[in-house]
Amino acid sequence: MKNVTTHPGPMLQVLNVSKHFGGNKVFNDVSLALEPGEVLGVIGPNGAGKTTLINVVSGQIAPTSGQVMFGGEDVNPKPMHQRSAMGLVRTFQQTKTFKTASVYDNLERAKLFSGRGIALETPYFAELLRDAGLLSRLDQLSDTLPYGMQKMLGLLMALITEPRVLLLDEPAAGLETEERHFIDRYVATAMTEMSCCVLLVEHDMELVKRLCPRICVLDGGSLIAEGPPDEVLARREVIEAYLGTAGEEEVAHA
């Protein structure tokens, strides 16, 4: 069953959020909004703070200052598991599965721990399991799967909880070229079947351009650009953030 959203404003708002670790200022006064039904990309060079931003939004760590709003509610006081139960769900760069449990048990545990979810037999979810090569491996232990399948299982563990907002932290990292198209189908299913919106952090620019009508660029502790991917990737400040002025042509055609 699709999520039904009654909140009239943005589904997710990050309002003037800063995160400092002692004297290390990861980012300052970052603000962004994710509208219902939107896929928003967040890109930036290594070390720009993209994963830290997801950690803050998901409730894994607290912001130094600022506010995270989900469905119109201030979720700053809520820990990660409570946000997940509300439908604010994240994935991880590295595979996060129960290694000695079967594929089936991993998916069932994800539902149990989040307190929400759909049946494995739901047609669109079963189709994604088939696309990932996991439908015929439900009894196989997670740690015996190839890395790409483990990564896709981790993504499916997030989706089976029927999220309202998905925070995807480099979902294509570690996937082979032919496996990366799974991400397209995964995001499309989340949007069309669950009315879910997606915040995507990713280095694969082709994937970002395919999936994200709008992107934000995080660099040097600030959001330095926002807009359609082709327009943003052509901006000089974005090119310099990635490769310096000598890399202008490479980034513009990424």
Protein topology:
Elements: E1 12-21, E2 24-34, E3 39-43, H1 50-58, E4 65-70, E5 73-74, H2 80-86, E6 88-90, H3 103-114, H4 123-131, H5 147-159, E7 165-169, H6 181-194, E8 197-201, H7 205-211, E9 214-219, E10 222-227, H8 229-233, H9 236-242, H10 248-252
Overview of this protein structure:
By secondary structure, the protein is α/β, with parallel strands linked by helices. The chain has one domain (12-252): Rossmann fold, CATH 3.40.50. It is 35% helix and 23% strand. It contains ten helices and ten strands. It has helices spanning 50-58, 80-86, 103-114, 123-131, 147-159, 181-194, 205-211, 229-233, 236-242, 248-252, and strands at residues 12-21, 24-34, 39-43, 65-70, 73-74, 88-90, 165-169, 197-201, 214-219, 222-227. The strands form two sheets. Strands 6-7-8-3-9-10 form a six-stranded mixed beta sheet, sandwiched between helices. A four-stranded antiparallel beta sheet has the order 2-1-4-5, with helices on one face. A hairpin with a 2-residue loop joins strand 4 (65-70) and strand 5. Helix 3 packs parallel to helix 5. The termini are far apart. The relative contact order is 0.17.
